[in-house]
C-alpha cells in the first residue's frame, strides 16, 4: 500500500515525547501511530499508539510519556522499550507493541509499511480541522 510516504522531519520527533500520525490499514481502519526516539539506528521507531494490555493510547494529544528510553502507559504504568517495543513489567508484561515500518532519508521520516497508507498528522479525529500534531506541546 504505502510507497515511502513522507511523515515528518526527524526533528519533529521530540525527546521525552512522541509525534503522532494517523494511517489507514488495508480494511480502511484508521490507526494512530507514534514516532519515538530510539538510541539505535536509524534513531526513530514507529509503534501503534495503543497499549497491549487494554484500549489505552500512549499519546492522547500531548505526547507519550517517555523516560529512560521507555514508553510509559498512562493507565497502569507498564513501560515499553522505545527501541524494541517490548514490555517486561506490570500488566502488559510479556507483550510487545506492534511496530510500523519506517525509514529515514535526508532527515525525513518515511512510512514504508505495506500494511498502511499515511493519512495525516495528529490523531484519528484531527484529520479535518485539527492544527496538526500537537503531541510535543503542552496545554
Ligand atoms: S492499559 Fe497499559 S498497562 Fe494497562
Automatic annotation (TrEMBL):
Question: What are the recorded GO MF terms, alphabetically?
Answer: 2 iron, 2 sulfur cluster binding; metal ion binding
Q: Enumerate the spans annotated as Rieske domain.
A: 34-111
Q: Which UniProt keywords apply?
A: 2Fe-2S, Iron, Iron-sulfur, Metal-binding
Q: Where does the signal sequence lie?
A: none
User: What InterPro entries would the database entry show?
Assistant: Rieske_2Fe-2S, Rieske_2Fe-2S_sf
Q: Which Pfam families match?
A: Rieske
Q: What is this protein called?
A: Rieske (2Fe-2S) domain-containing protein
Amino acid at each position: 500500500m504505502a510507497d515511502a510516504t513522507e511523515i515528518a522531519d526527524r526533528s519533529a520527533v521530540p525527546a521525552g515525547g512522541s509525534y503522532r500520525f494517523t494511517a489507514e490499514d488495508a480494511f480502511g481502519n484508521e490507526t494512530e501511530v507514534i514516532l519515538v526516539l530510539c538510541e539505535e539506528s536509524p534513531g526513530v521507531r514507529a509503534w501503534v499508539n495503543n497499549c497491549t494490555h487494554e484500549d489505552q493510547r500512549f499519546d492522547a494529544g500531548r505526547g507519550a510519556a517517555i523516560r529512560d528510553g521507555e514508553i510509559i502507559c498512562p493507565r497502569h504504568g507498564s513501560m515499553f522499550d522505545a527501541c524494541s517495543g517490548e514490555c517486561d513489567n506490570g500488566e502488559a508484561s510479556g507483550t510487545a507493541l506492534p511496530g510500523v515500518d519506517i525509514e529515514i532519508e535526508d532527515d525525513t521520516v518515511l512510512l514504508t509499511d505495506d500494511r498502511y497508507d499515511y493519512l495525516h498528522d495528529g490523531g484519528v479525529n484531527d484529520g479535518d480541522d485539527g492544527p496538526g500534531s500537537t503531541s510535543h506541546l503542552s496545554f
